[in-house]
Write a sequence for this structure.
């Protein structure tokens, strides 16, 4: 797929040391905090697609919800989320979402089943211009005028996805967070869906593409951030993923590459730790072949060969 | 919806209606035949010195000497001709009594029904909206308490409090005592209606509120509400555009489906308040062994409940886009 990176300016979105924890109830009335995201770092520049890749339960979707200020009430957030260099508070997020930030959810269940698509997408009391604009955006995604009057359950899978993407375009947002837009799709459909995001990025928007279809992510993204147990272990240009494990930095990224079907399908023993029982220091240490004494200490994110890595042994 | 489909549905409901009535007739007739009620004794009542011969003559006159199966067909045959027989306690045709009492009950039931529906839905919305916060906690406990209070008991409490202690409302009946019917004003009727209606609405009000709350909480935690908020809709807009839209239909369906509880409740409420409606008549017919009236009311209540469920289904199929538009797609 053709890719022209236009990323020049500073980051639109910058997430620094983000931690998200949930207040949970244990047996009886005992409370504890479940830390599902810890010390996560991410940044996106205009015109760039950053893929966020990781297995289920690594905190990918929560990152999107945290940025949009959509976390449930029992969640507490630490760390910094800044937009255009300005630090965001909850009320800023509420103001910006739907205008500067747009979420592209994964399936048709994110549309109200009892409301026709057209009015649902334009929002409450739309102006004439907004309705006109909605028509233009729908036209761009080959959604006929009749689609406006359909209910979500009447849409085909492809139509539903294009409707969801068009909500982001209609909002005019400069930051788009796409949450698993391609699950259960065959390669051709998935590439078509991802092509939409490439076009949006090429128009100068910043796109965060949350996915576990990692091989697809390399194809379309400019950079890939690898998530493990709620934190970023590596951020690398997607070219590195195409070149292979030698170009990658973190042992988990290498293992991930080796586990892909086309690269040998080699599994790594062990499993991602549950958020309630995180190991001290490096979260990957229990499964890591490079593990040493020092891995039990604090592991900072550091720059390495044009990417970022959270590993003291990476070279 | 196509015309063909409408006729198909009408046919289906008609068939269901007829089989329901046949089944109800058989079951209630069998139950009455098995019960120790003796219609002759009831007819003779307190009149002393009625000889066995006279009793047999009465039984023969009524056809009570015939086998039960034949009696059933005789009874069912007259019902088909619109003859429900004569009430033993009121000494008037059963249909006239049902018509007259039902009108009185209808005012009571409609008031209670509308009251519990509107109030229950509103309180349910408030609880759902404040889910987990103190207004929800307080109202929820209140509703759960109300769910577990028996209708007749709350009726007696209302009577003691509002009629005896405070004297705001009359003690019972539907009109003031000793006043000619044509001099009774509408305000007096309403004045008599309030307490029984309030009692009756207590039956379903808390249920509706809790049900609505549950639905609203589900909707507010749904994916589509999350996405609506992500698109920048405010809390109020989300509630109005997505919340109410998605809970109104189940609430209306449930409300129309509650006709059976309403009828059952009216028997208790009308007895406590001596309100001369169909519920009180049903109880009187049972106590007084008035078999024609009892069977008539049973059949009538079946029709009443059936109509409620039918209305619920019709409203559902008109208002729910998935059902409405789904039909068009099917064929």
């Amino acid at each position: 797929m053709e890719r022209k990176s236009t990323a020049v300016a500073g980051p639109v979105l910058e997430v620094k040391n983000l931690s998200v924890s949930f207040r949970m109830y244990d047996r009886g009335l005992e409370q504890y905090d479940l830390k599902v995201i810890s010390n996560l770092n991410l940044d996106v520049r205009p015109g760039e697609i950053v893929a966020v890749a990781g297995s289920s339960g690594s905190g990918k979707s929560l990152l999107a919800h945290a940025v949009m200020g959509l976390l449930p009430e029992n969640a507490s957030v630490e760390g910094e989320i800044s937009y255009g260099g300005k630090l965001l508070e909850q009320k800023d997020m509420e103001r910006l979402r739907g205008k500067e930030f747009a979420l592209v959810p994964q399936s048709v269940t994110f549309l109200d089943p009892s409301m026709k698509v057209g009015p649902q997408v334009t929002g409450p009391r739309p102006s004439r211009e907004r309705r006109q604009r909605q028509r233009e955006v729908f036209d761009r995604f080959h959604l006929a005028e009749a689609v406006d009057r359909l209910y979500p359950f009447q849409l085909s899978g492809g139509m539903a996805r294009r409707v969801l993407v068009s909500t982001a375009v209609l909002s005019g947002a400069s930051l788009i967070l796409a949450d698993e837009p391609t699950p259960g799709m065959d390669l051709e459909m998935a590439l078509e869906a991802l092509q939409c995001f490439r076009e949006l990025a090429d128009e100068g928007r910043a796109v965060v593409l949350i996915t576990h279809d990692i091989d697809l992510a390399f194809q379309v993204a400019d950079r890939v951030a690898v998530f493990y147990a709620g934190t970023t272990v590596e951020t690398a240009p997607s070219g590195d993923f195409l070149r292979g494990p030698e170009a990658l930095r973190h042992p988990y990224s290498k293992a991930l590459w080796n586990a892909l079907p086309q690269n040998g399908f080699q599994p790594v023993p062990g499993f991602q730790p549950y958020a309630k029982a995180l190991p001290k220091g490096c979260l990957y240490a229990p499964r890591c072949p490079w593990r040493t004494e020092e891995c039990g200490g604090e592991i900072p994110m550091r720059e390495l060969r044009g990417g970022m890595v959270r590993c003291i042994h990476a070279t | 919806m196509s015309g063909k489909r409408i006729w198909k549905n009408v046919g289906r409901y008609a068939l269901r209606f007829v089989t329901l009535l046949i089944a109800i007739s058989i079951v209630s007739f069998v139950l009455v035949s098995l019960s120790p009620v003796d219609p002759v004794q009831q007819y003779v009542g307190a009149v002393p010195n009625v000889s066995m011969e006279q009793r047999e003559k009465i039984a023969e006159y009524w056809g009570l000497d015939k086998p039960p199966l034949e009696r059933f067909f005789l009874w069912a045959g007259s019902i088909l001709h619109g003859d429900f027989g004569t009430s033993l306690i009121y000494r008037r045709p059963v249909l006239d009594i049902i018509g007259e009492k039902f009108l009185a009950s209808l005012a009571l039931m409609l008031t209670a029904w509308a009251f519990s529906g509107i109030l229950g839905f509103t309180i349910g919305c408030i609880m759902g909206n404040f889910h987990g916060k103190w207004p929800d906690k307080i109202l929820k406990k209140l509703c759960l308490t109300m769910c577990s209070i028996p209708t007749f008991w709350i009726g007696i409490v209302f009577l003691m409090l509002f009629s005896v202690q405070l004297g705001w409302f009359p003690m019972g009946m539907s009109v003031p005592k000793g006043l000619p019917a044509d001099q009774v004003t509408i305000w007096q009727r309403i004045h008599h209606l309030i307490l029984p209606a309030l009692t009756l609405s207590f039956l379903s009000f808390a249920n509706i509120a809790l049900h609505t709350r549950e639905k609203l909480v589900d909707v507010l935690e749904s994916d589509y509400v999350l996405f609506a908020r992500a698109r920048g809709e405010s809390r109020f807009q989300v509630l109005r555009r997505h919340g109410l839209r998605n809970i109104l239909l189940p609430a209306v369906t449930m409300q129309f489906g509650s006709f059976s509880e309403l009828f059952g409740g009216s028997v208790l409420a009308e007895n406590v308040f001596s309100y001369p409606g169909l519920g009180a008549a049903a109880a009187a017919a049972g106590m007084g062994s008035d078999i024609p009236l009892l069977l008539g009311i049973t059949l009538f209540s079946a029709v009443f409940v059936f109509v409620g469920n039918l209305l619920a289904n019709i409203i559902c199929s008109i208002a729910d886009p998935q059902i409405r538009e789904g039909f068009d797609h099917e064929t």
